[in-house]
Amino acid sequence: MKKMSIMALVVILVLSFTGCSNKEMKLYSAFEKAQEITSMESDTDITFTFNTTGFSQEEQNSMQMVQQMLKDSKISLHQKMLQNEEKTIAKAKVDADITFGGMMMNTQVWVDTDLSGKTPKLVEVIKLPPMVMAAAPEFQNKEYIVYNFNEMMDMNQNKEVDFNKLMNVSKELQPKLTKFLRDYAGQFNPRLEMVEYKGNKSVDGKNVSVYELRLDDRSFKKLVRYAANNFLENEDALKFIKEYMTTVVDMTEAIDTEKETAKEEMDKGFDEFKNNIPQMKENINVFMDAFEDVEVLGENGIVIEYMINEDGYIVNEKGTIDLNIDLAKLEKAFKKVNTNKTNSVPAKNGVFKIGLNFNSKIYNINKEIEIEKPALTIENTLYFSDMMKSAIVQTEQVETVDEGVLEQ
To answer: Domain span at residue 131?
Structure first.
């Protein structure tokens, strides 16, 4: 189980660090080293900004309500995680405090996974806010909801997929995925200077190296264009996708002849996909050309600061994502892409300016950490599998009644 990521975009960004300068390589190495972590804690704060311009007075009044709700909104997360070196057994706990529209909610989640045995285990325990638990009759007097992956799979009577095999295959594919990403990153070079070394400083009495990643609207689009084209051109990437698809077919509980037929159809479809790559690349570039003058990022763009300790681990990451959504320019760009389509929807004017700010501190890396699960009882716990069984029974009863009415 990996540390919770602040932003999914970092996956794309990390791939662009190799093939560039030495400072970008050092930051990439820190991301790779994070995969070695067997235990850690983190504190994360996320806040938002929201502004609009160019809307009608009536629309602007509605926008101001949204702006007021987001003004003091905040998400605070405290996470604990521990796992074995093989990454087959893991536990995690997340405490979340959410403030939105002047209301504060608290929730907790515990995750327990074990892929080391023949039967994989995945259990999630969720403590929802009291106001949520009180909203539905079946939740009342309950504190926890339990999602047991194995119980849910046992309810699946028409088992077309061996989910034990699915979990084990996932475990086997992980090192292959890691190797693929490392090799892929080695050839990935968009020729962008995105990372700047900001020097060293002392944080809590410990020396850290500071790196800043910065993307403006122009460089962000260049990165996206290059990444999309490069992936389609990369033979190793296509081979990995095909291997993954073949593995998925092997997991099905179909007889061998059906599997062979499915593989033949998959091979045929994959060949068609490869033949269509030139057209797909052309479509990507037409799309990117149409959006060349449409600002996706605002003035501040994407700015992320990373602090790396002397052991090579990232111990702090904080930054800002500044989004700019101009409805009129977006509509104009989509019309360029869809030249053969008519649009009867009236043109929209107005600009959304959305900001996301985050700050995440990572500590107690590879230290002793304890994660205690709550005491679950019949009185305080609701099992998701029981909810599903109840829903199935109610559906069957309704169908029986409907059939009786039709017969009359």
So the answer is: 10-407
